[in-house]
Amino acid sequence: MAGAEELEGICKKITALDPGIRSAVVLNSRGHLEAGGMRKGLEPLEDQRHVEMMYVELALRVRMRHEFDSELGGVRFSMSYRDRVILLSFPLAEDGVLLASTEKDVDFGRIAFEILEIIGPLHGSDGAPRP
């Protein structure tokens, strides 16, 4: 995975895409925070313990999705449309993951593909984002 400074820069670019993006974080393969965070001035919707549990669970899910790559192709991103937020996860090389959370009123289709462009070579699979 890229260095911490590069990952921080990527997270900042992502949060700058739209004021409705609440957070952008990069997690390692074990679900530990490597870079990024919440947009300044926003309050998290969950407590720190739940955030850490969600990160670990997400990292595990991303690794498990590789089971179907040979039949279905690599995952470019996954989305959870929840009652309070939208969560977008993007597999990265070395089983890392980029997680972005947004307000519900953002154009999640546009945002997802713009994020794919930003993460480019950090993306898992073959590194080539595809619509």
Automatic annotation (TrEMBL):
Source organism superkingdom: Archaea
Gene3D superfamilies, per database record: Dynein light chain 2a, cytoplasmic
Q: Sorted alphabetically, which Pfam families does this protein's record hold?
A: DUF6659
Instruction: Quote the SUPFAM superfamilies the UniProt record gives.
Output: Roadblock/LC7 domain
Q: Which InterPro entries match?
A: DUF6659
Q: What is this protein called?
A: Roadblock/LAMTOR2 domain-containing protein
